[in-house]
Amino acid sequence: MTKNELFQRIATILHDTFEIDPVRITPEARLYDDLDIDSIDAVDLIVQLKPLLGRSLQPDSFKAVRTVQDVVDVLFGLIREQAA
């Protein structure tokens, strides 16, 4: 899965789960400041992302995540790690 495909899947999850206008979902969009994703929503997002990996995601992996692109990068790294 490419980073662009991951971004598209994450954008769909953000729109479907949190009813965020797709126009607001950009790689640079900050989860808390721009998209109003709070800590409870972040946990919900991690649960929604689990099927992309087929296994549980460790919340620690997402400590430094601030933007949508950060989420893409972390997931991409986890997918590559799992494939290795």
Overall residue-averaged pLDDT value = 90
Number of strands: 0
Structural class: mainly alpha
CATH topology: Non-ribosomal Peptide Synthetase Peptidyl Carrier Protein, Chain A
Task: Determine the fraction of residues in helical runs and give it as a percent range.
Answer: 55-70%
What is the H/E order? Answer: HHH
Strand content: under 5%
Subcellular location: Cytoplasm
Protein name: Acyl carrier protein
GO molecular function, one term: acyl carrier activity
InterPro entries: ACP, ACP-like_sf, PP-bd_ACP
3D structure, described in words:
The chain is globular, with a radius of gyration of 12 Å. The protein has one domain (3-83): ACP-like (Non-ribosomal Peptide Synthetase Peptidyl Carrier Protein, Chain A), CATH 1.10.1200. The chain is mostly helical and 84 residues long. It is built from 3 helices and no strands. 56% of the residues lie in helices and 0% in strands. The protein starts with a helix and ends with a helix.
Task: Write a concise keyword list for the protein shown above.
single chain; 84 residues; mainly alpha; Non-ribosomal Peptide Synthetase Peptidyl Carrier Protein, Chain A; 3 helices; fatty acid metabolism; fatty acid biosynthesis; ACP
Concise synopsis of the structure shown:
By secondary structure, this protein is mostly helical. The chain contains three helices and no strands.
Please outline the helices and strands:
Elements: H1 3-18, H2 39-53, H3 68-83
Helix pairs in contact: 1-2, 1-3
